[in-house]
Amino acid sequence: MDILTVKNLTKKFGKFTAVNNISFSLREGEILGLLGPNGAGKTTTIQMLLGVLTPTQGEVKYFNKSLQDNREEILEKVNFSSTYTQLPWLLTVEENLTYTSYLYKIKDRKQRVKKLIEAFRLKKLIKEQMKELSSGEVTRVNLAKAFINYPKVLLLDEPTASLDPETSDYIRKFLIKERNQFNFSIIWTSHNMAEVEEVCDRVVFINHGKIIADDTPEKLAKTIEVCHVVLNVPDGLKRTVEIC
Amino acid sequence: MKIISYKLPPRNQKMKFNRIYALVLRFYYLFRHSWDRIGDAFYWPTIDLMIWGLTSTFFKSFAPNAPQIILIVLSGHMFWLIVWRAQYEITVNLLEELWNRNMINIFVSPIKFSEWVTSFIIVGLSKAAMSFPFAMLVVYLAYKIEILFFSWYFVPIILLMFMTGWWVGFFVSGLILRFGTKVQTLAWTFAWLIGPFAAIYYPVSTLPGWAQTIALFVPASYVFEGAREIIYNGYTDPTKFYISFSINLVYLILSIAFLYSSFKKVLEKGLVKVY
């Protein structure tokens, strides 16, 4: 069953077309990767899916209802986390989660905040102000915030971008485990194919605002014929010149 | 006008208390942690009242036949404090969200525009409920002046001052949403732009002719004129307050419409890009 359908979505900023007539769907319990290089239109798409950016054209439907006409009802069941947004930096971790919990209809607020603090390993940080945290810790608080309302759809914009490998791995496994247990759906934007392959059931590949491919990670990997490999070697250019 | 053509959400216009409470709580937490905010609420009103009180005491020594001068200046300043507080809480709380890049986190939740605006009004009222009695106490202790001297007139005066503060706040917030933090200085300066025409400390007749014409369109000027009449005669013609209320109401409706249209405009760029 499709829980989200996107039809002919387009966003133009003046003459520049950031997202060009894209259509896709998200099934119940599915993790869909939105893969593409920087500037491909992933974040613009996510913003339109959240209703914080007005599309130039097209339609977004959650649970078969238009987002534009049923914003309040839909956003009760949707949440979002991004490496590129912040939370109020003078508030503590606990205060951020507490005030956010009131934005949604949650019956067991205290229990929920407590559970998320444990799940995202934030226990030692609850009384810390956001300004005191490292970028990885901020990302974990952002993710905890995204889970606060038991979302049916979770939109994650490069959720592991600022995490160390161990925490990234923990977060990926946590998200898969939660999805398996509660059967919610995730849209996961990334430009890391290996990560997308590990986590996602299906991948939509976007470039220059257009969908280039929509398939399982395995099939998508097989169809990509040309790979660009960039080796980052310290003093690489200097040494190459010396060898030559 | 373009704002009329905006499509309003189709149904369920009812505001939800929990979401308004969430934002009030967010600003209460901020207040607890921010010395800037605590200073704004208590330190600056005290300093202002001391300076204006001492200045008017000095002037009174030159004009012994004008015994009400201290009351006129200090009551004027205190009522203006309400305008200032009400507009400041709206504009600076909006700026706080922009500085923190938190607008997107607020609006990916089911919060409505009306709930967001209401939360600003409640935060402003709460802060004024702290600052104003504190200022009254300062004035009483330092100069033995009771602002409650205004008796029942006190209620409409306070209400009209709040209304002025709200429309100024919503109008400036609309500008900040449209142009970003590059016009953030308006949050501190715009109210003072209408200050001279509001005739806070002097009668409207003191203003030059052209400025008196502008003062006709400044609702606070009627209130301050009325307040001075109460100080001199013990009463004022309530028509002044009715006129002030009517102009304030028109400006309030227009300013909310402007803020809403600015918000819709921002959604065309994306909330992430507002800074």
UniProtKB/TrEMBL annotation, chain A:
Keyword Transport (UniProt): yes
Protein keywords: ATP-binding, Nucleotide-binding, Transport
Source organism, top-level taxon: Bacteria
Pfam families, per the entry: ABC_tran (PF00005)
One Gene Ontology molecular-function label: ATP hydrolysis activity
Record domain ABC transporter: where: 4-233
SUPFAM superfamilies: P-loop containing nucleoside triphosphate hydrolases
Protein family: Belongs to the ABC transporter superfamily.
Name of the protein: ABC-type transport system, ATP-binding component
Native species: Candidatus Roizmanbacteria bacterium GW2011_GWC2_37_13
